[in-house]
């Protein structure tokens, strides 16, 4: 029996990539969003241009949960190649829509679900001409079927199409025809709406649907970044594309056509990070975006930037590793690689946004920190945040904001100096003063990755070398106080969850579910490396903390054991590394299983 | 690199340039290279050129990678910022720095190892971008700091100090630069200051990428019999094709050239390069002919030197012209010119509803 599930279900659409299904999916999601119902779209796509399986998951959640739920209530199975697994995935009591132009009763039969056959190809072949058009229209047609089944407003859909194709009104009509075909067929042949349906609410006002890469790019524009250097790599490319497109609109002088930014497609990631260092060293706010393989390549320059104290902002949109891995799947696998990038004693400031909203604000924060601390700052987003559309509160901007350019001596101050010394800790916070080229000969210094004294001179003297290395540690302590603080939630349970980044949404939903089952757990979301006092306190205050992260090797747990005083035995890992975003049910089940096991009992902890 | 600060004592009778500076004002730290190293002569030529141009020291940005050559940026113009980066990656630092502030002069000093092996890619792409900089290769055919391995510029048949013969063909930076569309390509010899100084002056003033490949013998590891990069070999096989005299905008031409001997090229800032062809058939404005001549001389073991190719027409846009950036350097734009502001954000967000 199917229970009525209004505004609380998950649709999954299985298609072939390169066939236009992305526009239908966006259309469906946005029309739900505009009905005032919280919604989330996640794209599971191949590293391919055309012809491989692709899925799109739409989670409708009246309670505003934006993570994967872990169940599928309605499957739209349009890719015969994946029928078998798609049919299996539907929750008991759920629904399956397929293209009945080619009936497949054996393959698609499951007694506990309702199968809905719609002759999509047949209808579109009759109505439209041209091979490509027919394929594209078939994929718009299912949006019409779903509109009828879920009770979506056709006028709202038309409005969305009119916005999308503002410059090609003919497309609005042809798309609408395809939608109407599907809509009418469903209404004539099935009872509409299904027990799953969308009823208008008012829970999306003051919100937007945006992906993290776009939000991060917008943050860079607002932070005043002027030099962007990069090498294309999935899933970071759209961040740079978005920066360019925002700048083309917002930073071009309408009269002269001159651009108040430089956008440099480098020959590789080695050059991209070099360009960022050169520009930052020379006083411009500069950044790059990359993914795991790019971070590996950038290591040598990151060590130079750490040691020579050059600001830089690097966005790492993490994908599945190791090596080339799965470029279009998500993971939190670069935590260790970023925290300790490069040879020798190096540690880097890392920020961990949980959603597009934080990508926007942390982009600004990253530039302020990089220039204040004179060091690279890495923003570790991931494919799930970067490339999926998330519902977020409206981004806000305070016009009173002014960039923190850090300790840079201007001409007036330089003139007052008798002599300038680049690496002397004048203020006791471990951060020296720097100067920019072209200001005054007295302020010139020699930047180098080789051993140097606090006065900036080359050295092979042990004591002089250590003075600088020890001061860098004092700077690291200053960083602890300046980076974004963790967010703690809870009321003194003896159990805790520690996590970071995109796992947040699934954890928050899981916590609500667990609370409903009588399990109270506190939650700490780490937002930056180095960890500060609050992380220490949280770990000390909880008998057992689950460390939830999306990698195989428990990298956050490793960082916590290396960088805090916590006993290893007090940390239990919940690891999700399939390449799909972690679901709330994974966490609920993981926590319940752990709590039930004797290993999690207090006496065992004491023995450990 | 040195531990020792060079004392700055200037005799009152030393000549002064338009800024009132003596040559001493363009020096840097004391060199720690081997006595007789060709690189030190190049450093001296850079000092001479910067003094001659009356360059404000703070307006010179010195960039380098790793190796003996890359140490030398510490040995001249201590009033300019220097950035000694990582091996072979100087061009990317130069690109970023130049993007941030187009008003300064950028000089990159590299070696044959730094440029032609690990740095070959970045070298090529800096040329492709026509980055406005002077790129000097201090070319000695050998890895000095690691004690005598062949570099990628070593000639076939050249002998290493320990007797090994190089069998792999060299990568020639001059031919590469010509092929990739560089607008200023020169070759010189550290032992010929008369030829080298005006080339450096012209290279610094040229708008776009200027390459000077300077043969610079390594006295310790590559100055023996059988080496094709020794002082003796270079002196013997060195063939100037075009002599270039650099004349700053503010100076009159005083030299007396014979009729038909000299031709003049005017640079974007009004400076002039007077070219004196030693071979009447040679045309330094013809890229293909220049490449052919270089190759022809190479095949008989000779080094063609001088200003081998020059395109001062400005037809090939440099990096900032391609990027369409304003005259005001990006690092000097006020924040107000960069942020769209809160009002604009509301409009931007409307697209995401």
What does this structure look like?
The complex is a heterodimer of chains A (608) and B (353). By secondary structure, chain A is α/β, with parallel strands linked by helices. Chain A folds into 4 domains: 5-197, Pyruvate-ferredoxin oxidoreductase, PFOR, domain III (Pyruvate-ferredoxin Oxidoreductase, domain 3), CATH 3.40.920.10; 210-393, Rossmann fold (3-Layer(aba) Sandwich); 411-482, no CATH class; 487-607, Rossmann fold. In chain A, 40% of the residues lie in helices and 20% in strands. Chain A is built from 20 helices and 23 strands. Chain A has a 7-stranded mixed β-sheet, sandwiched between helices. Chain A has a 6-stranded mixed β-sheet with strand order 3-4-2-5-6-7. A 5-stranded mixed β-sheet of chain A has the order 18-20-19-22-23, with helices on both faces. In chain A, β19 (495-500), α16 (504-516) and β20 form a beta-alpha-beta unit. The longest helix of chain A is centred in the N-terminal third of the chain and has 21 residues, at 169-189. Mean pLDDT of chain A is 95; it is low at 603-608. With 353 residues, chain B is an alpha/beta fold. Chain B has a single domain, classed as Rossmann fold (3-Layer(aba) Sandwich). A 10-stranded mixed β-sheet of chain B has the order 2-1-3-4-8-7-12-9-11-10, sandwiched between helices. In chain B, strands 5-6 form a two-stranded antiparallel ribbon. In chain B, a hairpin with a 5-residue loop joins β5 (142-143) and β6. The longest helix of chain B has 15 residues, at 38-52. Chain B is globular, with a radius of gyration of 21 Å. The chains are: A alpha/beta (608), B alpha/beta (353). At the A-B interface, β9, α7, β11, α9 and α10 of A face β2, α3, α5 and α11 of B. β17 of chain A pairs parallel with β2 (82-84) of chain B, so a sheet runs across the interface.
């Amino acid at each position: 029996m199917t229970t009525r599930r209004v505004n609380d279900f998950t649709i999954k659409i299985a298609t072939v990539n390169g066939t236009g299904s992305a526009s239908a999916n966006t259309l469906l999601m946005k029309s739900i969003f505009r009905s005032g119902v919280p919604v989330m779209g996640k794209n599971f796509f191949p590293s391919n241009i055309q012809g491989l399986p692709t899925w799109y998951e739409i989670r409708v959640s009246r309670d505003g949960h934006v993570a994967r739920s872990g169940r599928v209530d309605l499957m739209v199975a349009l890719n015969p190649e994946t029928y078998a697994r798609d049919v299996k995935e539907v929750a008991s009591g759920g629904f399956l829509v397929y293209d009945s132009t080619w009936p497949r009763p054996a393959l698609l039969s499951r007694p506990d679900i309702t199968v809905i056959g719609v002759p999509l190809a047949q209808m579109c072949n009759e109505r439209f001409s041209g091979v490509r058009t027919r394929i594209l229209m078939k994929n718009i047609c299912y949006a019409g079927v779903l509109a009828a089944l879920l009770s979506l407003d056709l006028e709202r859909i038309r409005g969305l199409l009119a916005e999308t194709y503002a410059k090609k009104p003919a497309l609005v009509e042809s798309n609408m025809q395809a939608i109407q075909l599907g809509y009418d067929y469903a209404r004539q042949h099935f009872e509409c709406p299904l027990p799953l349906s969308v009823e208008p609410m008012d829970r999306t006002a003051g919100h937007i649907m945006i992906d993290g890469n776009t939000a991060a790019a917008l943050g860079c524009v607002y932070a005043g970044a002027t030099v962007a250097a990069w090498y294309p790599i999935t899933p970071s490319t759209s961040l740079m594309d978005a920066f360019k497109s925002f700048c083309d609109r917002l930073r071009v002088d309408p009269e002269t056509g001159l651009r108040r930014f430089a956008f440099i497609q480098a020959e590789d990631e080695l050059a991209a990070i070099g360009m960022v260092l050169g520009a930052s060293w020379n006083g411009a706010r500069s950044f790059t975006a990359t993914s795991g393989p790019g971070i590996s390549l950038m290591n040598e320059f990151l060590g130079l930037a750490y040691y020579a104290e050059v600001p830089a902002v690097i966005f790492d949109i993490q994908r599945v590793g190791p090596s080339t891995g799965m470029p279009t799947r998500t993971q939190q696998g670069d935590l260790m690689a970023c925290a300790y990038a490069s040879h020798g004693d190096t540690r880097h400031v890392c920020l961990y946004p949980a959603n597009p909203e934080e990508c926007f604000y942390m982009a600004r924060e990253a530039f302020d920190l990089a220039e204040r601390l004179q060091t690279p700052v890495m923003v570790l987003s991931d494919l799930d945040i970067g490339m999926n559309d998330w519902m977020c509160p409206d981004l806000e901007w305070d016009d009173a904001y002014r960039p923190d350019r850090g300790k840079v001596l201007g001409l007036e101050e330089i003139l007052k100096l008798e002599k300038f010394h680049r690496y002397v800790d004048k203020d006791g916070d471990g951060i020296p003063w720097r100067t920019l080229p072209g200001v005054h000969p007295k302020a010139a210094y020699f930047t180098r990755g080789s051993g140097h004294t606090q006065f900036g001179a080359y050295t092979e003297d042990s004591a002089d070398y250590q003075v600088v290395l020890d001061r860098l540690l004092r700077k690291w302590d200053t960083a602890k106080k300046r980076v974004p603080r963790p967010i703690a939630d809870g009321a003194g349970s003896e159990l805790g969850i520690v996590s970071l980044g995109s796992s947040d949404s699934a954890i928050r939903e899981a916590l609500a579910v667990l609370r409903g089952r009588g399990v109270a757990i506190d939650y700490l979301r780490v937002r930056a490396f180095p960890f500060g006092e609050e992380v220490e306190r949280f770990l000390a205050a909880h008998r057992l903390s689950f460390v939830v992260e999306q990698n195989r090797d428990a990298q956050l747990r490793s960082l916590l054991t290396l960088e805090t005083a916590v006993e290893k035995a007090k940390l239990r890992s919940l690891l999700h590394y399939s390449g799909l975003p972690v679901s709330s049910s994974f966490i609920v089940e993981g926590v319940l299983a752990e709590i039930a096991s004797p290993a999690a009992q207090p006496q065992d902890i004491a023995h450990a | 690199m040195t531990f020792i600060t060079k004392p700055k004592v200037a005799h009152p009778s030393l000549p002064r340039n338009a800024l009132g500076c003596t040559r001493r004002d363009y020096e840097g730290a004391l060199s720690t290279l081997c006595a007789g190293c060709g690189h030190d002569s190049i450093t001296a030529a850079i000092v001479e050129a910067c003094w001659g141009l009356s360059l404000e020291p703070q307006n010179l940005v010195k960039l380098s990678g790793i190796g003996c050559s890359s140490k030398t940026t510490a040995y001249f113009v201590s009033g300019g910022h220097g950035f000694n980066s990582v091996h072979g990656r100087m061009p990317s630092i130069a690109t970023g720095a130049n993007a941030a502030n187009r008003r300064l002069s950028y000089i990159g000093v590299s070696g044959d190892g730094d440029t032609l092996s690990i740095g070959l890619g970045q070298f090529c792409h800096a040329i492709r971008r026509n980055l406005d900089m002077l790129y000097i290769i201090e070319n000695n055919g050998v890895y000095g700091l690691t004690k005598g391995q062949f570099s990628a510029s070593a000639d076939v048949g050249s002998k290493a100090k320990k007797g090994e013969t190089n069998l792999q063909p060299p990568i020639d930076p001059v031919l590469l630069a010509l092929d990739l569309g560089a607008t200023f390509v020169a070759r010189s010899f550290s032992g010929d200051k008369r030829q080298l100084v005006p080339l450096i002056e012209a290279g610094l003033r040229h708008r776009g990428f200027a390459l000077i490949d300077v043969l610079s013998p390594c006295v310790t590891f590559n100055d023996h019999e059988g080496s094709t990069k020794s002082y003796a070999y270079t002196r013997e096989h060195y063939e100037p094709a075009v002599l270039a005299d650099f004349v700053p905008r503010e100076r009159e031409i005083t030299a007396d050239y014979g009729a038909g001997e000299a031709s003049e090229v005017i640079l974007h800032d009004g400076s002039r390069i007077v070219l004196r062809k030693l071979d009447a058939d040679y045309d330094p404005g013809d890229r293909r002919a220049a490449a052919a001549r270089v190759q022809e001389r190479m095949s008989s073991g000779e080094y063609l030197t001088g200003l081998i190719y020059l395109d001062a027409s400005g037809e090939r846009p440099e990096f900032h012209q391609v990027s369409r950036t304003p005259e005001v350097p990006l690092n000097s734009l006020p924040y107000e010119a960069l942020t769209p502001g809160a009002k604009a954000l509301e409009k931007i967000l409307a697209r995401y509803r």
